[in-house]
Amino acid sequence: MKENLVLEKTYQFALTSVELYKLLISKNEYVLSKQFFRSATSIGANAHEATAGYSKRLRRQNVYCIKRSSRNPILVKAHRRWKICKL
Fold first, then answer.
1. Own/partner pairs for 33-37, CB < 8 Å, 24+ apart?
2. pTM of the model
3. Dist. CA 24–CA 30, nearest whole Å
4. Pick from 9, 82, 73: nearest CA to 46
5. 27: which DSSP letter?
6. Sign of CA dihedral 50, 54, 59, 65
7. Pairwise CA distance, residues 65 & 9, whole Å
8. Which DSSP symbol is given to 83?
9. 25 vs 17: CA distance, rounded Å
10. Which residue of 5, 9, 10, 66 shows the fewest CB atoms closer than 10 Å?
């Protein structure tokens, strides 16, 4: 199986982020370190979620939501442009 470059880079970033977090804590930067740690872990979580499988059930739910939103003319135009589903 081919290695995922994005996941590898986010993993390396997470390791570096933990080191920086520890350094900030040692300098008594509690607020900044906490926010930085949250942001850094969010990047990894988003990358993992983006590369995860997309189930058929979730796809059906998204199409259903798109069709329900077809009453809004702005959304209709966007859906046609992106060719998400036929409205």
1. none
2. 0.53
3. 7
4. 9
5. T
6. negative
7. 34
8. T
9. 12
10. 5
